[in-house]
Design goal:
The protein has 2 helices and 9 strands. It is mainly β. It has a single domain, classed as Pnp Oxidase, Chain A (Roll), CATH 2.30.110. The chain has a 9-stranded mixed sheet, with helices on one face. It starts with 7 loop residues before the first strand and ends in a 12-residue tail after the last helix.
């Protein structure tokens, strides 16, 4: 691994109403299973497109792309076209030695729908909360540090 190379692994937890256990996949360690915080994830070739986190509070949307293969079709079918599913997406960095970083962004999304063709399955998601993820803010919002608390997503940190 060169000095300028960045390795990223994403962990995908998809919960659907028709199944007790979530579908768990990771997209870096090809052909193997891997664990994050003691939870095991199988390999699946997926890609996440869109904004993974935002401080703007604009209810971001992402697309998760899978090749059109059997298990990906099951994700769509069991999630009622991905309209009755929730996604927890964790992003971890991979060290040059192949180990995972201990922390990173963790986002939650709600299924919006799905589309597919002969090659690709696209699951669409919207963020479940505006401007909220595990690392922001690192302190409680009060009138002292943001002024009068707004009713929308416009916050001016002081």
């Amino acid at each position: 691994m060169s000095v300028n190379e960045l390795r990223v692994c994403q962990f995908f937890d998809l919960t659907v109403q028709t199944r007790v256990e979530p579908y768990r996949f990771q997209n870096y360690f090809v052909g193997t299973t891997n664990s994050d915080l003691g939870v095991t994830y199988k390999f699946a070739p997926f890609q996440v497109q869109g904004s993974v986190s935002s401080l703007g509070g604009d209810n971001d949307q992402i697309q998760v792309l899978f090749p059109a293969i059997e298990y990906a079709l099951k994700l769509v079918a069991q999630g009622d076209g991905n309209r009755k599913s929730t996604l927890n997406l964790k992003t971890r960095f991979v060290t040059p030695e192949g180990r995972l970083s201990s922390g990173g962004p963790e986002e939650n999304y709600i299924g919006l729908g799905a589309t597919f063709n002969a090659d690709t399955i696209e699951l669409r998601f919207s963020s479940s909360l505006d401007a909220a993820f595990s690392g922001f803010p690192s302190r409680q919002l009060t009138e002292d540090n943001v002024g009068v608390l707004p009713l929308d997503s416009f916050i001016s940190l002081r």
